[in-house]
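Good morning,

Both structures are done.
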Amino acid sequence: MSAPIRAVAFDLDGTLVDSAAGVAQALNTALAAAGLAGFERPTVRGWIGDGPDALIRRALRALQRDDAGLAARLRRDFDAATLQDPAAQGEPYAGVAALLHALSQSCPLVVVTNKPTPLARAVLKAAGLLGHFAAVHGADTPAQRKPAPLLIEQAARRLDLPAAALLMVGDGPADLLAARAAGCRAAWVSWGYGAAPAGLATDTWRLDAPRELIARLQQPAPIH
């Protein structure tokens, strides 16, 4: 864990982009098409982080429905609604665009998200952030989803770096657990959707504003 940080991996929802309103809109559009009741934004906000399949499972559980065929239909309609209007998926958090611009001058940046890659790329492009990233690694299969380390390891291989040279930045427990499983350091952001961890590991940073990441990186482990 003491290797210099040479690249930074970012989660998407709740870390780079405040997408709760857009995710709720896409979910409710899919539910309405199936004749089902929708949910308020605060409820949906609490379901974000584990990918659209988990989001839909939570919605169906709340509706007391257990139907694999319905879940598959909702997923198709959710994806279609997201791709139809990716700009509605939210705005970058204040300070994120400036952070990415500054960091991308000195090291490669990647996205590691439980959102499927096509949806993630569409949202990043609509938010004006896609050009900052060397690659976008989305969870296109269940096995890839964080807290599994597979996406971080995939990102490291594509950058020709050891996983220990990456820093994983995210707002949820899955981000921190994936980083630990991959053997890289992590930073938890307080502005996202995930609840504050009960206790951060000594090598995990807490960030209360995007600009704090630059200051952190300039201290003990400079980027090479």
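Second structure follows.
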Amino acid sequence: MVTVSGFEQARLEDQYAGVIERPLAQRLIAPGVVIAILGYLVICFFAFDVPGVLNKARMDMAQLYALDSYAHKDHAKLSFRKADEGFELSLEGTRRARYDTPPAWFQSNGAESRIDLAGDGIVAFDGQSIVTYTHPDYDEPFRFRVGGGDYPVYLGSVTPEWLGDSGKQIDARPSLYSRIWITRSKIEVHRYENGWENFWFGFNSPLSGMSIGQLTSLAMSSDRIEPEMSNLSFIASEFWNNPEWQHGDIFYALLQTLIMAVVGTLVAGIIALPLAFAAAANVNPLRGVRFGLRRIFDFLRGVDTLIWSLIFIRAFGLGPLSGTFAIIFTDSGTFGKLFSEAIENADRRQAEGVQATGASPIQKYRFGVFPQILPLFVSQMLYFLESNTRSATVIGALGAGGIGLKLLETMRTRQDWENTAYIIVLVIGLVILMDNMSGWLRRKLIGDTEG
């Protein structure tokens, strides 16, 4: 153990006074910053009315929307006014997707109808006035009296939390995957199953429900379904033109989004590069020109891409051209600032060495400065290409076309959340693809050996 004499301690305190005994102001900096951050978060908590938002949140609807993104819903509906017609069976409750042949989960012998809710039990209607629901976790079934123009009546004595009885309607939700809704005019049963129904072929397609083996045999068969095309072409056409999932339209919109991002980024880089040289202090001695160009850069990048897209939609109308111009304008300002600063930070000795060989001013900057900023030029453009792929999706939703407009269309219906999830998966896949491609291009163009 090393001991320090009183004289040595006094000398150290005198020599390193600011280290050994820091001033009070310095000691308060760290806790002061923490308190300021906490205070800011508290202000934001109440300024954005977080308690009110949480109080108004409909978590039940959020769960249903989330479920609809990865599952499909079958409807079984009986109208008492048309009771003789029996239950109407459909996918998602649409008239365009009615089952001509009853699926396996529905059985009827003419008098009694039974609906299998998989793990949630069975709903039965006797064809007269009694609906019986058998739940696997309860010994006694739940019975309801319906029809006759009267409000439904629950005949049981035990009322679980998931069974809603308002006196005018019965709304039973045994789980997230099933619902039994009874009013004075109808019986409606919803049942969910995981999976994207009819993803490969439309509901009314002759190929709907076929297995991979059946499709393979059909593709190799000489008996054509459509005389004017081969079976393989017919299979591809049925998939591409699926009216429910619209694969062809969605991939075309995805291509539009990619074109907007690529063209917008590339044109912005081409425009910004010469302007950046003119705005660099070590290239252009004219202060007024440099000042003007830098203010133009500030103006272009100061207006967000969304605002530019709204302006160009007014000017050119709806379509990808408006989105492309919005990206060009914003990125031209950003690239101009980044490139001009990179040029000013370039090593002058390399440019002076090129000039000493008798090179012209253009050759001086071409061979003395440009190779130094090329890595930054490539890296920034590739990064913004990835970013603009996402931005093109957002501005497309405003009317600039592309996949963003398709995404907005699926969200407006509040029913096609599986289509929304499909588009989101494609956008994420496109961004991942662009990330991998940009990394590969970066390694090829500037010799980056890092993975």
